[in-house]
Amino acid sequence: MKERRTLERKYLMVYSRVFDRLTGKILGYLSDLSPKGAMIISDDPLTENTPVALRLDLPDPLLFSADHLNLQARVAWCQPDIDPSFYNIGFEFLDVKDQERAIIEEMIVAYEFRRDLPNYPISPSVLE
Hints:
Blueprint: E1 10-11, E2 17-20, E3 26-34, E4 37-42, E5 51-57, H1 61-64, E6 68-80, E7 87-94, H2 98-111, H3 124-127
Antiparallel strand pairs: 1-3, 2-3, 2-5, 3-4, 4-7, 5-6, 6-7
């Protein structure tokens, strides 16, 4: 599948639970996040283009002044994970308000994985 993402994906260090706000069912755990969408790891697949009312648990209510974030989204894609007992599901956020965008951006800054590789010495086996 051709990559259509226009913003760099940010992989998160903290896995927040993601719920279907209308049913209360846990959909999965937040795996990555951008201002325009997110990916979760789920036990169950979802149908592409399905609209979903999401509720994301926020990992640190003191940092975000809230314990959850409500967003309207659509299922952009769904595919099996490397572990076939799970699914990776991509969501496109719809109508994100300024306050919601600010919380998303704070989450990205506060919890993204470090991308810098440590400066380890070269292994002697590489020099041979």
